[in-house]
Amino acid sequence: MRKKGTNGKESRRRLLDAAAEEFALSGFYQTKVSSIVARAGVTQPAFYLYFESKEEVFAELVDEFQSQLSELVENSRLEPGKAIHDVRNEVQTALVNGFRFLSGNPALTRIGFFQSRESVHIKAKLAMMLEEKMELEREAGYFRTDVDLSFAAEALIGIMERLTLTKLLPGRDDPVHLAEQTRLLLFNGLLLNGD
């Protein structure tokens, strides 16, 4: 497989981007190599210089999504010793970053978060990562001890998954507003104060 040189890297990236668009639009089984190369503006033999099959391209796109998402979660830890106001702001920022990531490449999000067989595994891994982070943050004194963190992590993934599908990808809402509403729900709930 050819992978050297600037033109080669650009062609390979164009093929990956075109494949993401085609897979997101038509699904894996309906997407043809011919449609990928047409969208990328390269020849079919050029496709096979970089990839053995559409399966290989799809798998690479799923891996790319999972890797970028995992990196985003890894970089969003709350450090000990912050005031609660700062914690709220940092959670808001982390949620905005998450929604921005999901909206930043809609085709890749559709593939990695919804279409691939691995999407269930990706979301399960993401929930485990969030639970581990929240456990450390609870030990730092930020979260209540009576909340099941596994439940909280799964609920957050469910919220993000559904809002991405119904609001973010169709362009009905933006990452900042979705993050704000999610934070309000998580920190304040639905009930009015005043027992």
TrEMBL record:
Name this protein carries in UniProt: TetR/AcrR family transcriptional regulator
UniProt entry tagged with the keyword Transcription regulation: yes
PROSITE patterns attached to this UniProt entry: HTH_TETR_2
DNA-binding listed as a keyword: yes
Pfam families to which the protein is assigned, alphabetical: TetR_N
Keyword annotations from UniProtKB, A to Z: DNA-binding, Transcription, Transcription regulation
Chain residues forming the annotated DNA-binding region: 32-51
